[in-house]
Design a protein that fits this description.
- The protein is of the alpha/beta class.
- It has an eight-stranded mixed sheet, sandwiched between helices.
- 34% of the residues are buried.
- It binds NADP nicotinamide-adenine-dinucleotide phosphate (NAP).
- NADP nicotinamide-adenine-dinucleotide phosphate (NAP) binds next to helix 1 and strand 6.
């Protein structure tokens, strides 16, 4: 297939690498000439340009710029697309993007690959980022069959696990398992750097090991992405934060009242529940 990738950063560049490796021709469009040059030099794409003219006559276009720019980026390139081109996006929040783009393009389908690293930009692009990871498509009632079947084929080629959900269900689910953890993890890092004397802080920094690495990872990621998910998934994120605050309050009460049996019961329940969310962990 001839595949266009707009926004050659971590996600766009990683998709481009995998699609090229599967034998597709990849046409990359990005904002900066430097990014386009690096993408070409590093073999991430077959062709690159800052101008949308190279998107003529493609089978599929992936919109991979930051969430807040996806609709305007599409608006800038749509005149260059052929009417049969399937358009999808990779934004981490689906509700607003799908409601805008679905009405503007007959073969649009929203998508979200559930993979990432703490890095960003073209230099962070890597092969096989999506292998074994969930990839959610968010068709709506009258999403085009062409868009759905084309994306299903490409997602299987990435080695991802395909899921479908409504945009609304998707946003509520990712608020819980992706956007809430960013905020909790950021709060953890902020708490550790707050109000401690210099010697304790230096010791804590020296002693921080695997537990802190796991729990702080997403709070130390791309700040622009964190702000965008909060803006675009605000209601679902606020609901998740309310529920989290209640759970923190319950834990605090158990500790204040020294109710160790109840605390143990609660921790035993969370230990039982965790494998329902993450299976590939041994500790
Ligand atoms: P990123 O590494 O910062 O890459 C975004 C790229 O978009 C930048 O390299 C930039 O290219 C380009 N760009 C920015 N504004 C543009 C514009 N107006 N027109 C064309 N290109 C533009 O970000 P990312 O992590 O790949 O995220 C991209 C999308 O993937 C977001 O919508 C995000 O929600 C979604 N997503 C992210 C993750 C994650 O964990 N990071 C996971 C799943 C989905 P230049 O270098 O040319 O400026």
């Amino acid at each position: 297939m001839k595949i266009g990738i707009i926004g050659l950063g971590l996600i766009g560049g990683s998709l481009a690498l995998d699609f090229r490796a599967k034998g597709h021709k990849v046409y990359g469009v990005s904002r900066s000439q430097r990014t386009c040059d690096i993408a070409l030099q590093n073999g991430v794409v077959d062709f690159s340009s800052c101008h949308p003219e190279i998107l003529d006559n493609l089978d599929v276009v992936f919109l991979c710029s930051p969430i807040g720019s996806i609709a305007s980026v599409f608006d800038r390139v749509r005149a260059n697309l052929s009417p049969r081109t399937v358009v999808t996006d990779v934004g981490s929040v689906k509700g607003e993007i799908v409601s805008v783009l679905h009405s503007q393009w007959p073969h649009f389908i929203g998508g979200h690959p559930m993979a990432g690293t703490a890095q960003s930009g073209i230099g962070a692009a890597q092969s096989n980022l999506f292998e074994g990871r969930p990839y959610v498509l968010t068709p709506v009632e009258d999403t085009s069959e062409l868009a759905l079947t084309t994306l299903k084929v490409l997602i299987r080629e990435l080695g991802s696990q395909l899921y479908t959900a409504t945009p609304h269900e998707h946003d509520k689910a990712v608020a819980l398992i992706s956007h809430l953890p960013i905020m909790i993890s950021a709060a953890l890092i902020a708490t550790c750097t707050d109000r401690h004397d210099a010697a304790v802080l230096a010791l804590a920094q020296a002693l921080a090991s695997s537990g802190f690495r796991d729990t702080s990872r997403v709070g130390g990621g791309n700040p622009e992405l964190g702000v965008m998910v909060a803006q675009f998934n605000r209601e679902a994120l606020l609901r998740s934060l309310n529920s989290y605050e209640k759970n923190i309050q319950s834990l605090r009460t158990l500790i204040e009242t020294q109710d160790w049996p109840q605390l143990e019961a609660l921790l035993a329940a969370t230990k039982r529940e965790r494998p329902n969310f993450v299976q590939d962990v041994d500790s």
